[in-house]
Design goal:
This protein is an all-alpha fold and 121 residues long. It contains six helices and no strands. It has helices at 2-8, 12-15, 17-30, 43-50, 67-78, 82-93.
Amino acid sequence: MSQAYYWFRRSPVDLDPDGLIEQIKSTLERHGVERVPDAHAPDEMLCRVIGPGRLAMCYRRPEPEDVADVIGQFARRADIDAAELGNLLAVFAAEAHGNICTANPKCNECKVQYCKRLRDR
């Protein structure tokens, strides 16, 4: 029963989108990762990161063609530019940049407390 509760309760990301963004920025700063103005991560990777198993920006894993819409909707709730948020997530997820929330995430090095993978830390 507790497992079902965990998966179906509201995500703290819904209640505090600014907090999630600050946690991502803090993690990148802690690792000395510079912002890359034109960072890009594959949409498949971003699907995994923004989906319900990690950052939970949406309740189901989006299709690659829906990534921009999900990021845009979340950016409006957080009152941040969608391109800036997309860039931040790309830096966070891309192996060439932040190398934190990749296919094999480094959860022990991450400071994002709102992540659903928190149970694995």
